[in-house]
Amino acid sequence: MERDVVVSDPAAAGSSPSPSPSASSFAETRVICRVCQKQFAQYTCPRCNSRYCSLPCYKGHSLQCTESFMRENVMDELKQMQPEDESKKKMLDILKRLHLEEEMESDGEDESMLSEELIQKVMSGEEVKIEDLSDDEIKRFRQALASGELSKMIEPWTPWWKKPSARLISLSPDGSQLIRQVREEDTATSDPTTDQEPSINEIPEGPESPLPSLKQLTRVEPSPLLAIHLVDILYSYCFTLRLYNGDWHSDPLGASTVALSMSKVMGEDAKPETVPEALTACIEETCSPAYRHTGGFRFAIGLVDDIISILSLGHNALVCALSDFHRLIEAGKSMLKVEKVGKTESAQSSSKLRGATRKLFFMTCWVHEQPEEAWPPLARIVEVQKASLEELDTGSRKEDIKSRPQSKVLIEEL
Asked: Quick one: where's region Disordered (predicted)?
């Protein structure tokens, strides 16, 4: 094992006699950075105790150190995925309840169909107000909305993280966007009195200004659970974008409300300690009566796959996703100021949105400082959990089939 290079402090050494070893202090000796061998080391790696001077040197001090640390995290997660795991028990209860509700809904499937006349109005682009509908049409409309029948009429949106251009995202070393995209409406002469809907870029832009270091934001060490909290936040982001078909600009306040209800980390200040715990809470919310119309468990599994995709894209894609999410919440906060809601409700919502923006900004800065090698192992953890969830769902469905009463044999063998 290499020894740290210790240099005597020239300020401490002079013409005066050397002090005795018992009188010497730590301030009189300094350790040279093990990586660059140029600067004095101010920090120590908590994993291998190597001394380093700055964040770049930490990121490059030992790839094996980082990889082994993340590999141990993966193994810990795999060990926790046992049949007696509380998250698995909870997920099985969710799946059983969901399957039962699906059966009950399938029994009354004919009642949820919209009338032909109402479908023609919607398809022709004619404006349909709730006041124009009869009581029976209102009932059918709400049933179709809850069942997800109306979503079939909307052209599906392709998420930006599924596009080839997502692999080409570039940001400056300080985390800010390299080039701000110039749009045609920015250069063309436009009437300032006319309101134009904001355009949706193929890839969301990164931060507009350099990201500060974590030391500028807090004096305490960041929580080791931030990687798990990131999974919760990414699930909420993907859920919200898919629910709004990629266009959260149409209703930023509604989108913000949905995002906070989905993310327990941002909405309820929860602190999940494992990836299964974080995903179970998100999936339970997705399968709840409020959001079951989105697609239930299969939709939730698709969102887990979205998380894997973004993590696999790496550092720059994560920063852009979190920046886009931050802009969404900020837009919701601005919209809340002009909405006519009660003072108490407005104050509570505003406080939650402010807290969410702070958490998102801190998470963006934290992600920016992590080494690129941190994300593949985390993506692998989520991937393993996705396979475990699909296995649970398959097993739950088989149990449901076995538990159903068997039909009587019409013709007995004599």
From this structure: 1-24, 183-214, 391-414
Its pTM stands at 0.65
Per residue in 286-325, pLDDT (tens digit) is 988 888 778 888 899 999 999 999 999 999 999 999 999 9
- Residues whose CB is less than 8 angstroms from the CB of residue 6 and which lie 6 or more positions away in sequence, other chains included: 29, 30, 31, 32
SS3 369: helix
Q: Are 178 and 171 in contact (CB under 8 A)?
A: yes
| Domain extent for 73 | 43-81
Both tokens of residue 48?
Answer: 């291998």
Same domain, 148 and 174: no
SS (H, E, C) 177-195: ECCCCCCHHHHCCCCCCCC
Q: Tell me, yes or no, whether 19 lies in a domain.
A: no
Q: For residue range 65-117, what is the model confidence (pLDDT) as tens digits?
A: 655 555 565 556 555 545 446 666 777 777 766 666 655 555 544 444 556 67
In the three-class reduction of DSSP (H, G, I as helix; E, B as strand; rest coil), residue 154 is classed as: coil
Give domain status of residue 71, yes or no.
yes
